[in-house]
Design goal:
alpha+beta, four-stranded mixed sheet, three-stranded antiparallel sheet, 27% strand
């Protein structure tokens, strides 16, 4: 736990300084609960601490001591935040994630569920189950594209999955495996990890599975 906490803080120390917002109100999202808001609030508070010390370091006679003090303050922010997240993570497992599919080709999304969360990593894990629309064979190069959008339609994040591949547990369908129309391509589902510590999912509304063209043009 201690090692992972330090890793989180070091990651956020590097990332801090890139956010200008100071809104740390906790929101209760219909899908993800309070988890993303708490995680992002930690990032904002740590960012404020980082910026407060940033200007003082260049003028300090003992910058290393000042960095140590800064990092302790940031560590305390994350320690408290992780404690709050631990109370939220079990509430999420199994929740359905709203989605829509722009157009259905060979593959159709059947369901998207929350497959756990991790307080220390400040991450939520999703499982996407996809079925074959027609008879087909497994294809390791197949890709499906998605957008995570908020209540106003703004894109929060975008990404890519393989309908035949899962990272946790590590699963890859054999090449040229035959599927009939209606078959689930991967029972364990394809994985998506939402890192909430520096991306704000508190206003998440739905996932949109889109074409490659829509994905490439999405901003």
């Amino acid at each position: 736990m201690k090692t992972r906490l330090i890793a989180v803080i070091l990651t956020l120390t590097i990332a801090a300084g890139c956010s200008g917002t100071s809104n740390t109100d906790v929101k209760d999202n219909p899908t993800f609960g309070k988890f993303p808001s708490i995680a992002y609030s930690c990032y904002i508070k740590a960012d404020e601490v980082y910026n407060r010390y940033d200007g003082r370091l260049a003028e300090s006679n003992d910058p290393e001591k000042l960095k140590e003090k800064r990092n302790k303050e940031m560590e305390e922010i994350y320690r408290k935040g992780i404690g709050r997240l631990e109370k939220e993570e079990d509430k999420l497992d199994g929740r359905e994630v709203p989605f829509e599919q722009e157009q259905v080709g060979k593959y159709e999304v059947v369901s998207v569920d929350i497959h756990g969360a991790d307080a220390t990593d400040m991450a939520i894990y999703l499982k996407v189950r996809v079925k074959a629309v027609t008879d087909l064979r497994s294809d390791s190069s197949a890709r499906m594209y998605y957008l995570m959008v908020d209540s106003g339609g703004t894109i929060i994040q975008k990404g890519v999955i393989s309908p035949f591949h899962s990272y946790v547990p590590a699963t890859l369908q054999p090449l040229n495996k035959n599927f009939k129309a209606g078959d689930i391509l991967l029972e364990t589902g394809s994985n998506i990890t939402l890192v909430c510590k520096n991306t704000n999912y508190s206003d998440f509304a739905m996932m949109r599975f889109v074409s490659r063209e829509t994905y490439d043009n999405a901003r």
